[in-house]
Design brief:
- By secondary structure, the protein is α/β, with parallel strands linked by helices.
- It has two domains: 5-75 and 183-251 and 348-415, FAD/NAD(P)-binding domain; 110-175 and 253-340, D-Amino Acid Oxidase, Chain A, domain 2 (2-Layer Sandwich), CATH 3.30.9.
- Helices cover 28% and strands 25% of the residues.
- The chain has an eight-stranded mixed sheet.
- Helix 2 runs parallel beside helix 6 (182-195) and helix 2 (41-54) crosses helix 9.
- The longest helix is centred in the first third of the chain and has 19 residues, at 88-106.
- The radius of gyration is 21 Å and the shape is globular.
């Protein structure tokens, strides 16, 4: 089913009776060439690129809930390039370039909005750090512009620039940064993978692994045993739980990151705004709701909900930076389970069990990484060798000391 303006008009005139489901409700087969565990953005993208780039046609995606029920539907939808850290810079720059053409590639409206990302600074020291950050982005081939207070005020006049503790001195503008509709990403990749013959099997939880002489041969699920010589894991905050069933541990902790959305308001937040001193970020959706979040809850958890003290902290930061939104009503909040590594960077690598591959440790950056992650993980599963974009995301870097310290704050989970 190809989408076009003509198709939308034609279906509107006949009551939408010609629309079909985006993907089949597949039943599990006994055996596949490859299994991807996790029906979120990373898992679905991996299955799609395995089929498109490597010609595998017997692939299954196993999702314990429904497509989009995990972190891909529980985030603040921000996409951007990153900065400063060799290994991460190239990866996220490539991912942003993929976002820019992904709607055309998948023939699905992802509502990609390059509205610009503003990262505020509040001191001379922060300004100098952001200048270095912007220069690193420019050298990488991305875009960045340093704004003083008056230049920033012309773009976003509604901030409290004179707040006593953290006065706003300016911002680093990343014009190509922005947002993408998270649900649309899951649906688009699921639809595109299904069109290439991938079986998307929902309500199918993996309960164990079949391992013979150190090599994985299949999985045990709530819908029976399924054999496959290659299995990729893309289960975000559940990674630690799942690898325990394969007999090893990972250097990850699972934390909750909350997000919130308000009632619909007239458009006035035309950028993504990041307030580092309050660890707060906000944008406005196409429906008018303000979408915002803050810091992690600072205790390990597998609950898909947060606690009230962190919700209070986020609201305080919102009011400090943008007192104009004080009367907006919060409609709902949600929590995503983040898999956090000690150095703040992900793992895309072979596991200690032959044939079992890992895609985990995305910290705050999982959503914006989806296209490049899927492409890189598919390459690893299909060839057994790391993709050039992900060559530094090795599991053994924590043993060798070759860490990719995302923020320069040290190798501790809670600092990332």
């Amino acid at each position: 089913m190809h989408f076009s303006g003509y198709r939308v008009l034609a279906e509107a005139l006949r009551g939408g009776k010609g629309w079909r489901p985006f993907w089949r409700k597949a039943a599990p087969a006994d055996e596949y060439d490859a299994i991807i565990i996790g029906g979120g953005g990373h898992g679905l993208a991996t299955a799609y690129y395995l089929a498109r780039e490597h010609g595998l046609n017997r692939i299954a995606v196993l999702e314990k809930g429904w497509v989009g029920s995990g972190n891909v539907g529980r985030n603040t939808t921000i996409v951007r390039a990153t900065y400063m850290i060799p290994g991460n810079q190239e990866f996220y720059s490539a991912s942003l370039k993929m976002w820019e053409t992904l709607a055309q590639d998948l023939n699905f409206n992802l509502m990609y909005s390059p509205r610009g990302l503003l990262q505020l600074f509040h001191s001379d020291g922060q300004r100098d750090a952001f200048a270095r950050r912007g220069n690193a982005m420019l050298i990488q081939g991305d875009d960045a512009q340093l704004l003083d207070r008056e230049g920033l005020r012309r773009l976003v006049p509604y901030l409290d620039y004179e707040q006593s503790r953290y006065p706003v001195h300016g911002a680093l503008l990343h014009p190509r940064g922005g947002t993408v509709r998270h649900d649309a990403v899951a649906w688009a990749y699921a639809r595109a993978a299904d069109a290439r013959g991938v079986d998307i099997i929902e309500n199918c939880e993996v309960t164990g692994f079949d391992i013979t002489q150190g090599r994985v041969t299949g999985v045990q699920t709530t819908r029976g045993a399924i054999r496959a010589p290659r299995i990729g894991m893309a289960v975000a905050g559940r990674s630690g739980q799942l690898v325990a069933r394969a007999g090893f541990r990972l250097p990850v902790e699972s934390h909750i990151l909350q997000a919130f959305v308000t009632e619909g308001l007239k458009p006035f937040v035309h950028h993504v705004i990041s307030y580092g001193m309050g660890h707060f970020y906000i944008s406005q959706s196409d429906k008018g709701g303000l979408v915002f979040g803050g810091d992690i809850d600072f205790y390990p958890s597998y609950a898909q909900r947060g606690n009230l003290p962190m919700a209070e902290h986020v609201m305080e930061a919102a009011m400090t930076l943008m007192p104009a939104i004080g009367r907006a009503r919060v409609l709902r909040n949600w929590g995503g389970i983040m898999d956090m590594t000690p150095d703040g960077s992900p793992i895309i690598d072979q596991s200690p069990v032959a044939g079992l591959y890992l895609n985990t440790g995305w910290n705050y950056g999982g959503f914006k990484a989806i296209p490049a992650s899927g492409l890189s993980f598919a390459h690893l599963i299909a060839t057994g060798a790391p993709h050039p974009l992900a060559r530094r995301y090795r599991l053994d870097r924590f043993a060798t000391g070759a860490v990719l310290d995302e923020e320069g704050t040290g190798a501790t989970h809670h600092l990332h």
